[in-house]
Specification:
Blueprint (H helix, E strand, L loop, with lengths): L4 E4 L2 E4 L5 H11 L9 H21 L6 E5 L5 H6 L4 E6 L3 H6 L1 H4 L3 E4 L13 E7 L8 H11 E12 L4 H9 L16 E2 L2 H7 L3 E8 L21 H15 L3 H14 L4 E8 L1
Parallel strand pairs: 3-4, 3-6, 4-5, 6-7
Antiparallel strand pairs: 1-2, 2-8, 7-10, 9-10
């Protein structure tokens, strides 16, 4: 099928459906971000977003015995960090990557296998926090997702979300410079259904109060120069990534200031990924 982008409720979406079989069997084996073994630095990188979520929870909720639900808990690194601090439940289409990388943690947490929309009747409680980390961009039915959140998130509970920031000003400049139509953009791929910006993400959750929305290091700044454009100069890709990692390590030493910087970037529309903290009204 030819790639085609269309806008729905302010969100650019690709003409594809959610393939459960792919995500439950092939995704972790074929995707470049996943490995059988990670270095200590790679593990730290996987834990970092959940340290930020922990900070957002601690600064936004004044509750004891906080119940967390993570949709799409993947390899279980979020669970590894959060289950020691909160009452944690995870949902994923398959348990294999979780059990492979974090077997000890898997035995200690509540886990449901399947599509979170379809197994919702198995959930007997509401949660104080629901996390979608790197998940919303894959989903076909965002309306059902909103209904699920409204049903299972406690009043005044937190919704924590992380998605790629696509068609940012830097990316648009790159596409314009090289006369590339949107549907042929390098970052438009068959893995992602939805393409968010800070504005469209806030619009999706317009019935929630946005406490924080911020972005990380704008690695796509390298697209503006032919020598550093990692889509053209493939060899520079690893250097761009290494610069991104070193910058993130430095500015994450103070999470409050890191978030403040990210909020300013988000206002400008720049940054490669978006993290948002919404509160149910």
């Amino acid at each position: 099928m030819k790639k085609k982008l269309s806008k729905f409720n302010g969100i650019l979406s690709l003409n594809k459906s959610f393939d459960k079989n792919h995500y439950s069997k092939d995704y972790y084996a074929s995707h470049g971000f996943y490995k059988k073994k990670y270095s200590s630095d790679e593990i730290n990188e996987k834990l970092e977003p959940f340290k930020i979520y922990d900070y957002l929870i601690k600064t936004s909720l004044k509750l004891k015995n906080i119940k967390i639900l993570e949709i799409g808990c993947g390899e279980g690194f979020g669970a590894r960090y959060l289950h020691k601090r909160y009452n944690y439940t995870g949902i994923e289409l398959t348990s294999h990557p979780f059990e492979f990388h974090n077997k000890k943690t898997f035995k200690k947490i509540n886990f449901f296998k399947g599509d979170f929309i379809e197994i919702k009747n198995s959930l007997k409680v509401k949660y104080d926090v629901i996390i979608f980390h790197g998940v919303l961009e894959h989903l076909s039915d965002l309306n059902s997702t909103l209904k699920f959140i409204n049903k299972y998130l406690n009043n005044s509970g937190l919704l924590l979300v992380n998605v790629p920031n696509d068609f940012s000003p830097y990316q648009k400049k790159y596409l314009k410079n090289f006369k590339i139509p949107y549907h042929k953009a390098n970052f438009v791929n068959q893995e992602h259904k939805n393409y968010f910006t800070p504005i469209s993400l806030k619009k999706l959750f317009k019935n929630f109060k946005c406490l924080k929305i911020f972005t990380n290091f704008p690695i796509d700044i390298f697209l503006l120069n032919k020598k550093t454009n990692f889509y053209i100069n493939k060899k520079f890709g690893i250097h761009a990534y290494n610069i991104y990692r070193e910058v993130e390590k430095v500015i994450k030493k103070d999470l409050k200031k890191y978030i403040n910087l990210g909020e300013a970037q988000s206002d400008l529309g720049i940054g490669r990924t978006i993290t948002a903290c919404f509160k149910k009204k």
